[in-house]
Amino acid sequence: xxxxxxxxxxxxxxxxxxxxxxxxxxxxxxxxxxxxxxxxxxxxxxxxxxxxxxxxxxxxxxxxxxxxxxxxxxxxxxxxxxxxxxxxxxxxxxxxxxxxxxxxxxxxxxxxxxxxxxxxxxxxxxxxxxxxxxxxxxxxxxxxxxxxxxxxxxxxxxxxxxxxxxxxxxxxxxxxxxxxxxxxxxxxxxxxxxxxxxxxxxxxxxxxxxxxxxxxxxxxxxxxxxxxxxxxxxxxxxxxxxxxxxxxxxxxxxxxxxxxxxxxxxxxxxxxxxxxxxxxxxxxxxxxxxxxxxxxxxxxxxxxxxxxxxxxxxxxxxxxxxxxxxxxxxxxxxxxxxxxxxxxxxxxxxxxxxxxxxxxxxxxxxxxxxxxxxxxxxxxxxxxxxxxxxxxxxxxxxxxxxxxxxxxxxxxxxxxxxxxxxxxxxxxxxxxxxxxxxxxxxxxxxxxxxxxxxxxxxxxxxxxxxxxxxxxxxxxxxxxxxxxxxxxxxxxxxxxxxxxxxxxxxxxxxxxxxxxxxxxxxxxxxxxxxxxxxxxxxxxxxxxxxxxxxxx
Length: 552
Known about the structure:
Order of helices and strands: HHHEEHEEEHHHEHEEHEEHHEEH
Number of helices: 12
Number of domains: 3
């Protein structure tokens, strides 16, 4: 595991890489430039090394050919008129002749070796320079030279010169010594000067490549900064506009494409500012209208309610038609009161006039109270109510009245659409958040319905019979109640499988649930009750009803 400091550095580098277009551009340019320069420099280095070696080898072969010819000529002319030869004198003279034929005798050594497997009357004692290690002459080279086909054979070797390893070339050729048979002349050339030249060239190429890459990186940085800086200013201005600072604009300089972009952006911002201002004014008028109408309707509605209650209580004295009319009047007046209450609540949210009265609350106890309140209706529907609360940090700072209202709405929806199946409420928490999930196993919803389930007044099937209200504002108000707590209300549903709503709230009133927060409950939570529900029975009930689920 990396130390904390290295982990923080790596995370910071990853953040800079993801957020900075300029850094990515410069890094990618330098990376590919480094690859290109490395390939080019490597090719040049190999080409120069090959040319230097070939040139030196050509020179060495020329000198070796001349030395071999001189030595052969000396041995040939050392034969007396009677066909005899003084091999010792001829050998000494041959050493001198070979030495004179070399252009750089100080860096060259030589050796004269007798070809094995010969039987002659006389034998010339093999000789070599004093510092030459004859072990550098390989057996492969000696076998090639022993063929005596008139060619020169060369081989690259490493020479140990005063404790330093230098590159060298060994050139071998065959010489015919009168009366003594075939001998092999080996010339060993030290090519340290070639290696030094190659090292200098490679160092120059390396330094030049580094300077070139640095120059490319610097130029790329300056160019990208020049091009990206206006884009960065535009992005910052757009962010401020998105945050509500509608008077922000991009500075307009010059006549180039960036200036054209700035002018176009500013005209767009002016247009958006005018339209947003108009829409905000219209929204305020609409909110004011809804609020005023709701308040104004409460007085006549109270009078109608009182009169309706009197008529409803005396319905037994009326004929059946009038009595039924009194019942309908009583039910619709109650629905009207509920709708006005919801409209007033929405107007408070729209006006930003909602305040929370938070206190530490045990959410398990709150859920139990909500279940008990709805249990008579659940018994009437034939739905079993279950509570799954494994235990933990259940207490949280919430407005209990608003959370209770959310639960009543979710439980009412579950009863209306559970088709008599069990309804399970899950409660779980961790040190950061608390989650409540209400799961039913009813008809469920498809993807199109899920997109609109939290819309105001939206009802997929207004004709579906409801037992808990149905103004079409319940989930919209529940969403606002969750958001004012800093929480989130999520939904999952599948046709024929059921629906699950999950309310996630922060444990502390000064925190919020973000996209990075991991809720304590999955959506939907995993529970063994799913094995109790008969999928075939649920699908058969949905096929019989053929009615999409309505969520209010």
